[in-house]
Amino acid sequence: MKSFHSQTAIFPVGYHANRFYWSMRHSNRRCKYMCSIEEQDGRPLFKVKVVEKGHEDVVLTGSSPKAVWAQILEPVAQLRDSSGTLKLFPVYLKGEDLFGLTTSAVTRIIESLPGVEACERYTFRYGRNPLMEWPLAFNPTGSARSEPKVSQAKRPLIWRLLLCSKSWASVAGAHQGRHSKSAQYRRMKAEWKSNVYLARSRIQGLGLYAARDIEKCTMVIEYIGTIIRSEVANRKERLYEAQNRGVYMFRIDNDYVIDATITGGPARYINHSCAPNCITEVVTVEKENKIIISSCRRIQRGEELCYDYKFDLEDDQHKIPCHCGAVNCRKWMN
């Protein structure tokens, strides 16, 4: 691990990123640079594959991000200087930045990977959540949202609409007296990126975490995607299963479903829990129904967001195990 990190970045083996940058052959064109990290003799090997239309692909390697990108930046700077275009100063460009390793979303995920506690020289930007250091739960049937199930042949397992309880409705009603739902929605749309971040979950796969303390009855994030009819949702679900693709769908009402499988946002990664800290509600904004995930209690910074999927009850043959780990866990999601 000592060789696979610096003070400002961690270098995970298998990392891939595509960048578009100025061409080394034409001063007024851009081309594609495919960055990757491999292991060679116990040390990281940084590769950049130059893909440009009309030219053969070129693979450059280096012992550090700066070393490999220097082979690109210097020719680009010389070409732009000779052509009279805007000068490029490669000395001020960092290899870690060009590899995308310092991008906020990438850094959050890398800092949640197992084993990162061995990176002694690295300065963590977001800190490590103790939950992220737990090993992944063994789930023989997979997530209810992403793995094929036998029950789907009998009835499509699409996320159903979660209705607000009476206690929540009364609390939300009092909260709405101070701020209308439309005002809360507009504020949430402007601030949701500062509310949450994506990281490894102790429940299943990736999960969504609170990036700050969130008060009770606060709109956290919207479940977005493509709005389709129920009939289309059934066909698409079968198509996704045939492609071995994870299925992320949420029912708005009896007629329409939000399909977040291809065009969804990070809200689709929120896991199920029998002791949830969030609840979903349908909010009408400008005559459109929106599915909003709101906090049903105060949520502390670094706490994983979760809500009760409320799947329909199934027989023993089609039961889906629950691994939320809550004290009151029902052991099954359905």
Description:
- Strands 1-2-3-4 form a 4-stranded antiparallel beta sheet, with helices on one face.
- 28% of the residues are buried.
- The protein has helices spanning 65-83, 95-98, 104-110, 151-154, 166-178, 181-195, 230-242, and strands spanning 16-22, 30-40, 43-51, 58-62, 196-200, 206-210, 219-223, 226-229, 249-251, 256-259, 271-272, 278-285, 288-295, 306-307.
- Among the domains are: 15-118, 2-Layer Sandwich (Double Stranded RNA Binding Domain), CATH 3.30.160.360; 181-224 and 265-307, SET domain (Beta-clip-like, Beta Complex).
- 22% of the residues lie in helices and 23% in strands.
- The protein has 7 helices and 14 strands.
- The protein is elongated and about 65 Å long.
- It is an alpha+beta fold and 334 residues long.
- The model is unreliable at 129-139 and 146-178 (pLDDT under 50).
- The two termini are 42 Å apart.
- Residues 194-310 form the SET domain.
- It catalyses: L-lysyl(4)-[histone H3] + S-adenosyl-L-methionine = N(6)-methyl-L-lysyl(4)-[histone H3] + S-adenosyl-L-homocysteine + H(+).
- It holds the Pfam family SET.
- Its EC number is 2.1.1.364.
